[in-house]
Design a protein that fits this description.
mainly beta, single chain, 21 strands, 0% helix, 192 residues, rod-shaped
């Protein structure tokens, strides 16, 4: 690019105006700034290798050189972080966060404290604010974990519950109910 004008300032800063309208400003510490000919596109390359770009629509793209991470902030408030390991985080203006891990597991963190994780095999885990957890497996089985029990529901309608005291209760589709104590001894079995 041809230089139209070059100005050196007493503080050591040097500004170059190119014939295409771009401005280049070089700072003594090694940082430099490029203002595009549109006057709206700005790129700052810092002495440590970080790069900040401001686009005409006010999108800000910041690259952290040491962490090899890119943080993009859009004008609508959405923030997207790309990490070097392939993890991607989206931070929405309403406070919701969506994290996509390198194995393609997706975790949603909702503003009300609930969480949802969707695993590559189709398993979905939902955690409520009270700490209770629902797990939906890709084979049709479902589990509910609370502070009082863990319950597994099978596709055939069978339901097995294990209580915090170790007692187990199995309800079969036929109506049969079997209850075992914490040591596995049958204490009720209603064979129909």
């Amino acid at each position: 690019e041809e230089i139209q004008r070059e100005t050196a300032y007493p503080d050591g800063k040097v500004e170059k105006v190119l014939k295409n309208g771009c401005h280049l400003i070089f700072f003594p510490n090694g940082t430099w700034k490029k203002v595009g000919s549109d006057g709206k596109t700005v790129t700052i390359t810092f002495f440590n290798g970080d790069v900040k770009q401001v686009m005409p629509d006010q999108t800000v793209i910041y690259y952290y050189a040491d962490a090899k991470t890119t943080h993009t902030t859009y004008s609508d408030g959405l923030e997207v972080l790309h990490f070097s390991n392939g993890q991607i985080e989206k931070h929405y203006p309403d406070g919701k966060k969506e994290i996509t891990f390198p194995d393609q597991t997706i975790k949603n963190l909702f503003t009300d404290g609930q969480e949802e994780s969707i695993f590559p095999d189709g398993t979905i885990v939902r955690i409520q604010r009270d700490g209770s957890k629902t797990i939906e497996f890709n084979n049709g089985q479902r589990e509910l974990h609370t502070s009082q029990f863990k319950r597994r529901e099978y596709p055939d309608g069978t339901v097995k519950t294990v209580y915090v005291n170790g007692q187990q209760e199995t309800k079969y589709v036929s109506g049969r109910v079997r209850v075992k104590d914490k040591d596995g001894n049958i204490i009720v079995d209603t064979k129909l």
